[in-house]
Amino acid sequence: MAEIAVHDDAHAHDAHGHGDHGHGDHGAHVTSTGLSNNKLAMWLFLGTECLLFGGLISTYMLYRGRNGDGPGPNQVFDIPLTSVSSFVLLMSSLTMVLAVNAAKAKDDRNTNLWLTATALLGSLFVGGQVYEFTVFYHEGLGFTTSLFSSSFFTLTGFHGVHVTLGVIMLMALVGIIVRSRIPGDKAEVVELVGLYWHFVDVVWVVIFTLVYLIPA
After folding, report:
1. Nearest one of 54, 67, 35 to 150, comparing CA atoms
2. Single pTM value for the model
3. Which of 22, 66, 105, 145 yields a CA-CA distance of 20 to 30 A from 5?
């Protein structure tokens, strides 16, 4: 009888251990894809953004030669200026990678440093875009000037809004880290913002190539 009691106690202990292990797995919130719920949600969001930008790019490619009486792309585009702005934005991807690595190493100081650097580079890009739009307007290219101008300003302006939102997210994240108020895994939160930022950069590479480098 004593052996049976010991066996029952051991079985109950094993069952309790398995229950705790299952509860720990549930707490990790990992989906069947191996990604956390937050990462999966971000990838789904970026997927919808791909469809949206794909539609805007297709619309521009359809209308880029229809400039009517207004100036055409070859008359207003300043390729050197836009190339510099593009380089600045691409460099911000590097600083974002450094921020993610610092966050994984639990180095808050360098995380904030590289996040701030990324936000500054993004702000420089947006500033360059605003300057470009101002020059285009003074040269007679407004939003309603032609189908070309409407599709161009919609596409590049929409991307500029995304970069601006990214800058706001970066600076808000810096503030949250300083106050130590990040819920959950800090490194994952920085990585999620990084995914969004890299997406914005990749989209700009496509836009810059199709809009500025390929002649109409």
Report:
1. 67
2. 0.81
3. 22
Integer CA distances (angstroms), 65 to 19, 139, 175, 181, in order: 65, 18, 45, 51
- Indicate the residue type of 81: L
Cα 1 to Cα 4, 7, 8, 15, 44: the distances in Å are 5, 10, 11, 21, 58
- Clarify whether residues 18 and 66 are in a common domain: no
17/58 same-domain check = no
CB 92 within 8 A of CB 170: no
Asked whether residue 91 falls in the same domain as residue 127, the answer is yes
User: 96-146 pLDDT, tens per residue?
Assistant: 999 999 999 999 999 999 999 999 999 999 999 999 999 999 998 999 899
Q: What are the two backbone dihedrals, phi and then psi, of residue 31, each rounded to the nearest 5 degrees?
A: -85, 175
Range of the domain at 60: 35-213
Number of domains in the chain: 2
The DSSP call for residue 88 is H
